[in-house]
Fold:
Amino acid sequence: MTDRELVERAFSMHRFSYVPYSKFPVGAALLCRDGTVFTGCNVENAAFGSTVCAERTALLKAVSEGHREDWEVLAIAGRGRDYCWPCGSCRQMLYEFAPRLRVLAARGDGEFCAASLEELLPHGFGPGALA
Ligand code: THU
Structure:
């Protein structure tokens, strides 16, 4: 699967986003080594702090389906003028399972750029830190 195709999968999740408060749909698509793709959308809540980001939805789907050590690329698609990079909480949760994950951040016009999770969360706190 190409980067462009994965970004398109992320955009296609906008239709499921539940965003009555922000009106800002975000979609995510997580590609595993065997070709499996886990998708996600943001799911907001009247208690705003209980909102779940799109990439965290995809992450939880992957882990709960037995995929947690084979993540290759994560695409995140927003509708804004800026690239939709993952929020700090999501960076932390992703770091737990894939510190070297490749992340594609897309903006509303479909353009996207790439970075590694290590670049997005330098000196991250991971499982090794508890050893
Ligand atoms: N959001 C995501 O889904 N992922 C991000 O990386 C940034 C923010 C969502 C959360 C909320 O539903 C909306 O975007 C506005 O913050």
Observations:
- Residues 19, 22, 24, 26, 42, 44, 51, 53-55, 76, 84, 86-87, 90 surround tetrahydrodeoxyuridine (CB under 6 Å).
- Helices lie at 3-12, 54-64, 88-97, 117-120.
- Residues 45 and 81 are 24 Å apart (CA to CA).
